[in-house]
Each structure stands twice: as C-alpha cells, then as structure tokens.
Amino acid sequence: MERSIAHIALFAALIAVLGMMPRIDLISGVPITLQTLGVALAGTVLGAKRGFLAVLLFVVLGLIGLPIFSGGRGGLGVLAGPTAGYIIGFPFAAFVAGLVVEHWRKVPVSVSAFAGAILGPVLLFSVFGAAGMAIILGKSFAQAYLLTLPFLAGDAIKAVLAGLITQTLLKLRPSVVTSRAEGRA
What DSSP line would sit under 4-58, residue for residue? Predict the structure, then answer.
C-alpha cells in the first residue's frame, strides 16, 4: 500500500517536473511540452489504476493552484484556456496506456507501452484537446481537431520514448513496473 502511494506521488511529481522543461507554443495557444511523456509513463509503468491516480493527483494539485502545469501555470483559470481539454483528459490517457500494457502481455513491454502511449496520450489527447479547444475557441470539433495535428509527430516520438523507458525500467527494476507485475506469480 505504502509503495503504491509512493509511486503515485513520484509520478505526479515527475509529470510536474517534465512540464517545467522549455516549451514550444503553437498558434492555437497550446504548448508542446514533455508533460505528456510523464502522463504516458504513469500509465505504462504504474498500470491503469495507479497511473490514473498519479495523473489525477497531478491535475488536482494544479487546479488547486500549485504552478505545476506547463509553463508554471496553476489554478482553476487554466480550465478557461485552450489546454482545458488536455488537462481533463490527462488521467484518462494514463488509464488507457496502462490498460494496454496490462492486457498485452504476450508482446514485449516496449511494444505494448508504445501502443498504449499511442492509444491514450496521443489519440485520446487529440479528442479531449480538440473538444476543449472547440468549446474555448468557439470552433467546430473538426476545426479544433485540425489544430491538434501539429502535435502528432512529437507525440509519436514521446510514445516511442515511453516504450523504451518502460522496457528499460522493466529490465533494471522490474518491481517498479507494476503494470506488468500484477497477475505474476
């Protein structure tokens, strides 16, 4: 129990740190950051439930005012900006990534983690992000979805990194990768 809590807190902190890395702002107002890599890793390393909880902790801490969202932002005001959909989608993306790794046990973890990071933190982010931008920017969903396309190349690179990092952690510290530990004898 204590180990799970520590892992959840550690990954919430990792996501915050990755959001402090230099960002690139797009014309839509949505920045490209490494924060989404942290979301992917929370799911691929911790699994669906713990990954969801780690990212939910991160989101709640940011919404109550800690300056942990990309660029040092925090507070409920971020939900009035173009990143609102992404922030709301963070925990669900980690859940999906973790679910894939937990259930695709017959393939190497690098493959399942990559696939999980594509299905959650890439595809699901696009849907949540486009929905948020459509509402905030007053655009149709299709118009807003087009604004998410510049993220896909970077997100694909982050998905590859999530696969490689998860595989490396599994080799070096198998007990840390709880997405694969559950169900093992």
Answer: HHHHHHHHHHHHHHHHTS--EE-TTSPEE-SHHHHHHHHHHHH-HHHHHHHHHHH
Position 114 scores a pLDDT of: 96
Domain hosting residue 42, numbered range: 2-175
C-beta of residue 84 within 8 angstroms of C-beta of residue 136: yes
Please give the C-alpha separations between residue 95 and each of 46, 116, 119, 165, in angstroms, as whole numbers: 10, 9, 10, 18
pLDDT above 90 covers what percent of the chain? 72
DSSP 77-106: GGGGSTTHHHHHHHHHHHHHHHHHHHH-TT
118 backbone dihedrals φ, ψ, rounded to 5°: -75, -45
Residue 148 lies in a domain: yes
Q: Evaluate whether residue 182 is within a structural domain.
A: no
Rounded-to-integer distance, Cα 7 and Cα 121, Å: 20
- Predicted local distance difference test score (pLDDT) of residue 40: 96
The CATH number linked to 148 is: 1.10.1760.20
Using CA atoms, how far apart are residues 171 and 164, in angstroms rounded to an integer? 11
- Cα separation, 47 vs 45, whole angstroms: 6
Task: Give how many domains the chain has, as a whole number.
Answer: 1
